[in-house]
Amino acid sequence: MGEELGYRYDVEVVGLLASPAHRWDGRPDAALADGAVDRRDRLEVRAGHGIVGDRYAGRLAHRDAAVTVIAIEALEALAGELGSGPLDPLATRRNVVLRGAEVEALRGQPFSLDGVLLAGGRPANPCAWLDLALAPGAHRGLRGRAGIRCAARGDGVLVLGPAVLRSAVPLDRARAGVAVRPINRTARDR
């Protein structure tokens, strides 16, 4: 896969999260939404397993979605739209928060972050809890830009700070916070 990743980008890892327990279950509840965020300085990633110490690591049902990635620019754009002031990116419960990468363009694409091979998968759709954990309107406002779910295809360690992202497709930093909308299909196209 390494030769296929011909595009190189200098990015910054601005947030890391690994949670040993599921924090949000059922209907949104303000008391639970205010709970501690499981911030980390480093994450150990294992191929076919996920993030060591995370609730989804090693779980068969989550093998293709064991690592979630979001662009901080999406949250900065949302904060501007909502007039809310700065938003805590780890309150989204995404494992990796990047600056300088068009994360949504990595859907369905292989990429690496500081040598850790990942397979970008489906969108990490926002949930209603975000209206409590981030700001009212966050659930709707993050649609199409809440990050992606990835499968761990290689071993390695991710740390906060400067990093190198390699991708199989070209990325546009200017689009890092832009929502990707699904194609509207007619009944005839389905």
From TrEMBL:
Domain MOSC stretches: 35-167
A GO MF term: molybdenum ion binding
InterPro entries: MoCF_Sase_C (IPR005302), Pyrv_Knase-like_insert_dom_sf (IPR011037)
Pfam family, one: MOSC
SUPFAM superfamilies named in the record: PK beta-barrel domain-like
Name of the protein in question: MOSC domain-containing protein
Protein's organism: Modestobacter marinus
